[in-house]
Design goal:
With about 220 residues, this protein is an alpha+beta fold. The protein is built from 6 helices and 8 strands; from the N terminus they run αββββαβαβαββαα. The protein has a single domain, classed as Class II aldolase/adducin N-terminal domain (L-fuculose-1-phosphate Aldolase, 3-Layer(aba) Sandwich), CATH 3.40.225. An 8-stranded mixed sheet has the order 4-3-2-1-5-8-7-6, with helices on both faces. A hairpin with a 2-residue loop joins strand 1 and strand 2. Helix 2 runs parallel beside helix 4. It is globular.
């Protein structure tokens, strides 16, 4: 864990970011979850966590096969987090939300199309949506981890969204950005289906993004 903050610091960061997610309105009541890689394990919000009741002491240390330490159960979505960490070495933190506009788009089980250049910050010309699977099931974990191969976020059909980043702040930033983009897409749809950026537009976007050091495929 060379270069990684110590456990106490990671727990404090996770609690602070979980409360930030709640304050932003990305999760309400006990929906959603947040985790951070901790060596060959992870620290994850407990089952039933809210912005009001999460503490550094009830954050759960969990192995990628589900073994955990603590008085409470880990989030029911621990499999999805574990699958992403195991598949993507660059993933240092994960944020899963049930934010309103992400849920609205995901409820149609459609990818968020390339109607705006800022979708490129997620790594491509769209944000994919995986099919619906029951929460906590292995199928959802596999689908989400595969969808995040070329993207830093994806929608979860009839469910919500999930993002990965090198750190907790980045993962929450991705979740907030995706909620903004989904909101703007829903608003744009009120005037009809917006046109997509062209392949040439995307080539030029990524060229400019590299010049400006935009975060991409973190």
């Amino acid at each position: 864990m060379s270069g990684q903050p110590d456990e106490k610091t990671l727990r404090e960061q996770l609690v602070a970011q979980y409360q930030r997610v709640s304050a932003l309105g990305l999760n309400e009541m006990s929906s959603g979850n947040l985790s951070v890689r901790f060596g060959d394990k992870m620290l994850i919000s407990p089952n039933g966590a809210t912005g009001d009741n999460i503490t550094v002491d009830n954050v759960i240390e969990t192995s990628f096969d589900g073994k955990f330490e603590g008085k409470r159960l880990p989030s029911s979505e621990w499999r999805m987090h574990a699958a992403i960490y195991e598949k993507h070495a660059v993933a240092g933190a994960i944020c899963h939300t049930h934010s309103d506009y992400c849920v609205a788009v995901a409820s149609h089980v459609i990818s968020l199309p390339g109607f705006h250049y800022l979708l490129g910050v997620f790594g491509g010309d769209d944000v994919p949506c995986v099919p619906y699977s029951t929460f906590g099931r292995e199928k959802l974990a596999v689908d989400a981890s595969e969808a995040l191969t070329d993207r830093t976020a994806c929608l979860l059909g009839n469910h919500g969204m999930i993002s990965r980043a090198p750190n907790l702040n980045g993962a929450v930033n991705m979740a907030q950005r995706l909620e903004i983009m989904c909101r703007q897409y829903v608003l744009a749809r009120q005037l009809g289906e917006p046109p997509r950026l062209t392949d040439d537009d995307w080539v030029d976007f990524f060229k400019k993004a590299d010049e400006m050091a935009y975060a991409r495929n973190g």
